[in-house]
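ok, trying the design again with the full structure, not the truncated one.
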C-alpha cells in the first residue's frame, strides 16, 4: 500500500451536502478496496489563480489515505466524471524515514 494525498477543488456553487456526498463516495471507494482513510482537511472557499469554467472561486479539500495504485486509479476516474469536481491532483505522501546519526568528520 502507498500513502496518497488528493487536493480536490469543488464548484463554489455546490451546496454543502453535495460536497459531503462526493467526499463520502471517495472514502467509501478507498475503504471498500481495502485501503484506509487517514484524514481530511477542508480549506474552505478560496480564490483560484485563474478562472476554470468561468468560475473564479472553488472549495478546496485535501484528504489523505493509504491504498493500492489500482484504488487511486479508480478514485481518479470517478472524480473526472463527477459533476461539481472542478480539478483534482493526487500525489504520493512522503514516508517518514529513520534519520541517520551524524558521523563526525575525520580530519
Amino acid at each position: 500500500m502507498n500513502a496518497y494525498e488528493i487536493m480536490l477543488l469543488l464548484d463554489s456553487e455546490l451546496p454543502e451536502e453535495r460536497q459531503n456526498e462526493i467526499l463520502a463516495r471517495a472514502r467509501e471507494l478507498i475503504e471498500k478496496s481495502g485501503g484506509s482513510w487517514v484524514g481530511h482537511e477542508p480549506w474552505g472557499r478560496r480564490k483560484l489563480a485563474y478562472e476554470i469554467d468561468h468560475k473564479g472561486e472553488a472549495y478546496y479539500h485535501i484528504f489523505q489515505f493509504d491504498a493500492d495504485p489500482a484504488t487511486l486509479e479508480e478514485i481518479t476516474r470517478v472524480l473526472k466524471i463527477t459533476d461539481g469536481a472542478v480539478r483534482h491532483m493526487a500525489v504520493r505522501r512522503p514516508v517518514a524515514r529513520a534519520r541517520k546519526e551524524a558521523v563526525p568528520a575525520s580530519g
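Keeping the full-length input from now on. The longest helix spans residues 16-32.
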